[in-house]
Amino acid sequence: MAAPTVNQRTTTAPEEGRTPVQTVTMVKALNMGLRAALEKDPKVVVMGEDVGKLGGVFRVTDGLQKDFGEQRVLDTPLAESGIIGTAVGLAIRGFRPVCEIQFDGFVFPGFDQIVSQLAKLRFRSQGRVRVPVVVRIPFGGGIGAVEHHSESPESYFAHTAGLRVVACSNPVDAYWMIQQAVECDDPVIFFEPKRRYYEKAQLDTTATPDPLFASRVLRQGGSVTVACYGPMVKTCLDAATAAAEDGVELEVIDLRTLSPLDLGPVFDSVRRTGRLVLASEAPSEASVTAEVAARVQQECFYSLEAPVLRVTGFDTPYPPSKLEEEFLPDLDRVLHAVDRSLAF
Questions:
Q1: Residues paired with 17 in a beta bridge
Q2: Is the pTM of this model over 0.85?
């Protein structure tokens, strides 16, 4: 069975003074990616609460203000609506703002600006106005935080026409995807799984990355297709390793892009396996996993040997931290869904 892979092909010489291959956490990879974007384009600005002198609550922007100055790495007031509104104005004037929302639940004060202005300006102006804004949102649970700090609000944004929505799951993707998001001429909501922030991977900064809006098969298998994104990718890879001990081969697909969805690899896989399990921390009602399930049923109906099954968070507000292990989908729940699928 193939091991998890991230596509990187070495194509260019490393920059002088930089090691082309190094082991980094996701926090470090995001910092490096933002640094590369700031170096490449003087119109890129980073803004948010405590992103400057403090370096962000998770230290993703550590050192950037010192190196690029207060005019390009801006500490903002505690006002998400103001952050997004200011970014919209900057984008109209030709800048490429990267906004940090400290925690997932803090995005809602800025929700009006995102869905009413950011998502609509390019369409409203018939393409004459571009708003290349990136909104970074640490999302998901698993860090023992209180409410408003562990939510999965991605479905709100994936449902909103005019926004592009992506979720990285590992340090390599974090490094490349944040740079690609900054270069995109459409607004991008960029979700970062905070409980994976300090997990490590080898990063080759001279590689050629996959396209931003593309899903990827991480592990091949012929028994059941498992599609996931963000924090659930590692959980599903661990489930695949455990299932292999019992002779069950799971094909694990990282969706990566939530809007637009890239479901070609999922369709191809389901036509081979006849079974699909979807995994996400978000509640199941009207969610990304619900959309994927519906699309697979439409496109692969005659290939399915079992109903599409979903492993998700429960349809409740996020619980107190002492209960989050009961709320979050884990390896056992994924494997239980796999067993149910194989039982049909």
A1: none
A2: yes
